[in-house]
Amino acid sequence: MKAASFDYVRPESVAGAVRCLVDAEGDGKIIAGGQSLAPVLAMRLARPRILVDVNRIPGLGALRRDGDSLRIGAMVRHHDLLEQRHSPLLAEAARWIGHAAIRSRGTTGGSIAHADPSAELPVVAAALDATIHAVGPDGGRSIPAVDLFEGALETSLDENEMIVEIEMPIPTAWGFAELSRRHGDFGLVTVVAAEVEGSWRVCIGGLAAVPFRARECEWVLDCGPAGEDRIRQAARAAAAAIETSSDLHATADYRRAMAEEFTRRAIEQAVAATRAGAH
Amino acid sequence: MQVNFSVNGRMESVDVEPRCTLADALREDLGLTGTHLGCEHGVCGACTIMVDGQPTRACLMFAVQADGCSITTVEGLQNDDGKLHALQQSFCDRHGLQCGFCTPGMLMTAMDLLHREVEPSRERIREEMSGNICRCTGYVGIVDAVEEAARTLNSADPTD
Ligand SMILES: Cc1cc2nc3c(=O)[nH]c(=O)nc-3n(C[C@H](O)[C@H](O)[C@H](O)COP(=O)(O)OP(=O)(O)OC[C@H]3O[C@@H](n4cnc5c(N)ncnc54)[C@H](O)[C@@H]3O)c2cc1C
Ligand code: FES
Ligand code: FES
Predict the structure, then answer these.
(1) According to the model, what pLDDT value does residue A278 have?
(2) Which residues in chain A touch residue B56, judged by CB atoms under 8 angstroms apart?
(3) What's the pTM?
(4) Would you say A201 and A213 are in contact if contact means Cβ atoms under 8 Å apart?
């Protein structure tokens, strides 16, 4: 199917983009990489009157290190995340997104704003307590990742707000484990384990409407040295806390079992990296 | 809207509705029907082309977004003397196609891979080509073809 008719605007500044959204009176939509929006338009699941193309706004494609954190412009493509060297965790997560032709266009801001429960970057953002910087008609605000994701494909962004930058700490140790049916598919279960400022963060995607921070699991890990027993116990704690349901792709029991196993793998990977780093 | 871009080295100008995809503009307005459309939502890979040197799904980009870009389609693959590109030749030789529907996307995806990696393993080829769906060949011939093209390109005389 083909998209329904729309008007197309290509503002040259963030302020200009916000003005276009305001002028559209709720009937405007930002297009970034288009890798999620274009199919939605083609299937006519959305029929915005005005499409606001933010691809030519200068400055949004920059990625820079700021002390112990990384500031990622909204238009940084998945491909750029894969190539950067500051955060190996982000590079690994990006490697799991679709295929080269998807990664060349898809953007960090787009993936976060789209908030697909099976997408990789929202899991990383929630694990690292990323801060999402957005600009709206009343100026800018900073939103903690936990407050941004509200449901499947739902965020707390206002319809006239635009993400401009995502800020995430660079973890001292990290692990990433994903289960997907085929290479490039969305994850059935995606787990990020990371150590930031001496404490553990574990986040699981694909199970619920929003990335799930496994606080009990983090707590078990924070209680003492991460030996094999503790890692198993932590992974069990994560699985026990999960509320998930069966669907076309997997039963709830299978998802929970895989969540435990992939949590264990992610933590083990992170711990192995710390050990290697200690020598 | 009036849109200008270069396709396979030639400046082109098309007048399209904003909702017209780049794939449709290439096929309908420019008659370049080598770019195929299967799913029209990014999944099958048949429409893969190069935009400013990056592999791109032509069904997920609107033509208006390509204003000023440099585009390469499967029609731009063959050599100036009209001979098939090494990849096209190896697809013929190695049974990399049957009906040919997926082939343009396969060729463009493979070309991008061989730009980035000179000697990809079969495993890497499978990984990188996994976003392109073929309903005929069973993929073995495609992997053989890409592997052979890499060998041909590597042994080619650079001064040729
Ligand atoms: C075949 C295929 C496979 C894929 N596989 C994966 C996968 O394995 N994992 C994965 O995570 N993703 C996958 N994707 C999706 C891809 O990662 C998308 O790039 C991403 O989800 C959306 O980013 P985008 O830049 O393309 O956004 P768009 O499609 O342009 O926009 C998506 C939504 O976000 C909004 N938006 C975009 N940018 C902003 C902004 N700066 N501020 C506010 N709102 C904004 C838009 O209005 C729209 O509602 C796949 C896509 C395809 C087609
Ligand atoms: S037609 Fe574009 S990916 Fe299928
Ligand atoms: S050759 Fe027929 S789809 Fe690939």
Answers:
(1) 60
(2) 101, 104-105
(3) 0.96
(4) yes
Helix B140-155 and helix B86-93, axial crossing angle in degrees, nearest 10: 140
The tokens of A201 are what? 């963060």
Q: Is B100 on the interface with A (CB under 8 A)?
A: no
Number of domains in chain B: 2
Residue to probe by mutation, ligand 1, list A13, A14, A36, most atoms within 8 Å of CB: A36
A121-131 pLDDT, tens digit each: 999 999 999 99
Report which bound ligand comes closest to the CA of B36: 2
Structure letter (DSSP) for residue B83: P
DSSP per residue, B105-136: HHHHHHHHHHHH-SS--HHHHHHHHTTS--SS
Helix pair A120-127, A88-95: axis angle to 10 deg: 160
- Given an 8 Å threshold on Cβ–Cβ distance, is A101 in contact with B18? no
In angstroms, the separation between the Cα of residue A215 and the nearest Cα of chain B is 35
- Answer with the one of B54, B76, B98 that is the final residue of a domain: B76
Phi, psi of A173 (to 5 degrees): -145, 150
Parent domain of A13: 7-53
Q: With b meaning 16 or more CB within 10 Å and e meaning fewer, what string describes A59-74? A: ebbebeeeeebbbbbb
Structure tokens given for B71: 């585009």
Report if residue B160 sits inside a domain: no
